[in-house]
Amino acid sequence: MICRMDFSHWLDLPWSDKAIGLENFDSIKLITCGDFSINATIFNTWIVIALITIVSWLTTRKIDNGRSISKLQIILETLVIWMQKEAKETSGSASQKYFAMALGLFCFIVTANLLTFIPWFRPPTASLSTTMALALVVFLAIPYFSIKNAGVKGYLRKFIEPVPLLLPMNIFSEIFSVFAMGLRLFGNMLSGVMFAGILSAFIPFVAPLTMQTLGLLTGSIQAYIFALLALVYTSSVRAENEQLST
Question: What CA–CA distances, in Å, run from 15 to 156, 193, 210?
């Protein structure tokens, strides 16, 4: 099997193309081995995962509870405590069940979105395949946590509440509400790339920098909303004793 690598288009500026930011990174194949290929979106996803892994390892390899706490450890501990608080307010006393998933989603999305400050980096969250994959994680987590909390009967009971007549509507709501999260994230991130490309055609250099700075804020907000909705959906079915305690 012969493998070929072509990174000639990976460093292309999104707003320098004739399509002013509408180029599809999913179609740019960087590594090809026979019928198997790695496109730019997957490669950028690996960069995000590698960055999160390296930063987490550097922070946790020498955890210190004394006075010599690093600034990076303080930042990450603040993030963890903040997310734990949000998880507890959303899902109640059993928030630790859902915390790891929500924090993982938040870290991935916010890191991918913040990397848009690099001019040539096209965030994987601007690809529908990535955002729908994230939505699929939440979609599979809902029955997993629901059955774990209240059993199969408890999970299925929610589809006939408040009346069995609403069964079809509740099923469609379960499916489309989750995948709407992926579409919302995709739309917001792609619109930012497109808008920066359009403005750069009229105001080169200044417009892209301004839009990327604004994208740091909107990208963080989108990551927070996605993680919060994931908490809401996955903790929607709980055991009766847990519901009473919250």
Answer: 49, 8, 13
**pTM (2 d.p.):** 0.80
SS3 content of the chain, % helix, strand, coil (to 5): 75, 5, 20
Q: Which two tokens stand for residue 150?
A: 């209240």
- What would the pLDDT profile of 107-158 be if each residue is shown by its tens digit? 999 998 888 777 677 888 888 889 999 999 999 998 898 888 888 888 888 8
Give the Å distances, CA to CA, from 227 to 33, 61, 109.
35, 26, 9
- pLDDT, tens digit, for every residue of 42-67? 888 999 999 999 988 887 777 766 66
Does the CA dihedral 47-53-54-59 come out positive or negative? Answer: positive
Q: Helix 96-114 to helix 71-91 angle, to the nearest 10 degrees?
A: 130
Report the DSSP pairing between strands 29-33 and 36-39: antiparallel
Are 65 and 72 a contacting pair, CB within 8 Å?
no
Task: Dump the DSSP string for 117-172.
Answer: GSTT---GGGSHHHHHHHHHHHHHHHHHHHHHHHHHHHHHHGGG-S-GGGHHHHHH
Indicate the average pLDDT of the chain. Answer: 77
Residues 6+ apart with CB under 8 A from 29: 6, 37, 38, 39
Contact 117, 216 (CB under 8 A): yes
Containing H/E element for 29?
strand 29-33
Sequence letter at residue 95: S
Structure tokens at 119: 């001019």
